[in-house]
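Sat 14:20. Reprocessing the chain from the morning session after the first attempt stalled halfway. Input below, unchanged.
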Amino acid sequence: MFKFIWNYFKGYVIIKITGFSIERFLNLCLNKDINIFKLEEVNNGVICRINIKDFKELKQISQKTGCKYKIVSKYGMPFFIFKNRKRKMFLIGGILFIFLLYYFSSFIWTIQVIGNNQIDNNIILDFCEKEGLYLGAYKKNIDTKSLQTDLKNNFDVISWVNIKIDGTKATISISENIEKENTIQNNEPCDIIAKETGVITNIVTRTGRPLVKAKDVVEKGDILVSGELFLKDGEEIKGTYNTYSDADIKAKVEKEIKVSVPFEYYVKDYTDNNKTTYNLLAFNKNLNLSINNNVKYENYDTVVSRTQLKLSENFYLPFIIKKTQYKEYIPKKKTYSINEAKLYANKLLNEKIIEEIDFSSDILDKEITYEKIEDKLIATAKLTVIEDIGEKAPITISYQDEGSNIENGTNKITNSQ
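Finished this time. Tokens:
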């Protein structure tokens, strides 16, 4: 796009070359650094484009090769100005337009953030705005390397960031650290506690001291694997130290999930009536482009879309067309039958089960009961689930023996006499 604008600004002509040595003609042009572009072969020659400043060099090449050339058409700003040289206001307007186009291209008019899942876009954009990257920022004043460093230093979740400015568009590409299930690091002493009440079905301990076994009943909050280890001399405990506990602990857990479905509900019956308004957003100003913005519908949905004007994929302009559609509807009351309410309740229960039960869990049994209470149906799903109930927790109580002293997870042993 920019190359086209630059060629148009300098001016170029379309010429047709004929003769028996066209290939030699083109090679001599390349040797003299003559820029020939958009070459097209025709029946009795070739058609190409050449800049005005190079056109005069063709006469000597034509004499050497015996090829002929002629101008097919002329394009560009110099020819346009010559053609309209008597229309001064028109020319002034054209020159002003080019100047404004060049001026606007010196600023950032759109910012895109990609790769972020844990940090909201607005948080990143607010931080960048304080550091100098915002809509309307002058591109030469933006220090992308410094901003990249500041983003990494201020957001622990960001592992890599790259800021690319292309045209009037700034793209902030982010790579985030994998979100961890808990805040316990591998080098921090911890216990594993039960996050649910249930019956242990299987336990595999890698580090730590298991306190439960299969078929044991545990309550929520019980310690399943202790991070306290004993130092023994035979059967005598000489000291203790704390370690990081790691284990896979499965348990059979009973869960109950409820949903409520009212028998009466409303649906939207859309009419053919709709209204559309347009606004122009520019430089933080809102210009109304519609004559009448009044919406007389009692019930309606609003659909808003925004389109930013641009000259190319990365050359955005500071003008946004906001389109607002108002669609009228008539609310109609309907009533579920018992069977319809049960079907809808089952759908809601399944959605809630998918949301609340981890995908790695196994559902052994599911029993659904229904209860009609006044104007609604209560559906209850009782589930028997095999799931991982282990949850890491920092060690807050010391189990040390009289002969040991524990500081910050390290062991200091005092030999007993």
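The domain at 2-82 is CATH 3.30.70.260 (Alpha-Beta Plaits).
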